[in-house]
Amino acid sequence: VQLVESGGGLVQPGGSLRLSCAASGFTFSSYSMSWYRQAPGKERELVAHITSAGGGTNYADSVKGRFTISRDNAKNTVYLQMNSLKPEDEAVYYCSVLRWGKVYWGQGTQVTVSS
């Protein structure tokens, strides 16, 4: 299993970023996918989750209405569209998959929100 995130960077408050996570090594379309984030000194937290076919999503209360998770099963990729970014969204963002009782993580992508 390999998960590779991209799309992070520096953005001003109120700005937008789109994160991508390219997956390989497993049947992507059969698994739900998640985005987590971890800020310095804080625990990793669930940001968004999407079911295998993309028909079901859920979000942390802190990002509802601002972030959108989606997936393209033909491209084995899951996305996180982040709008109206706030300084408190600054963190390393990870995608993950739970497969056969084990959680797999990507290497993460840094999102910095600063003016």
Chain-averaged pLDDT = 97
Tell me about the largest β-sheet: 7 strands, mixed
Distance between the termini: 37 Å
Number of strands: 11
Succession of helices and strands: EEEEEEEEEEE
Helix run count: 0
Overall 3D form:
globular
Instruction: Indicate the proportion of strand residues.
Output: over 45%
The stretches of 5 or more residues where confidence is low (pLDDT under 50) are none
Structural class: mainly beta
Rg, alpha carbons? 13 Å
In percent, how helical is the residue content? under 10%
Put the structure in a nutshell:
This protein is mainly β and 115 residues long. Helix content is 0%, strand content 53%.
Give a written overview of the molecule.
This protein has 115 residues and is an all-beta fold. Helices cover 0% and strands 53% of the residues. The protein is built from no helices and 11 strands. The chain has strands at 2-6, 9-11, 17-24, 33-38, 45-50, 57-59, 67-72, 77-82, 91-99, 102-105, 109-113. The strands form 2 sheets. Strands 2, 4, 5, 6, 9, 10 and 11 form a 7-stranded mixed sheet that branches. The protein is globular.
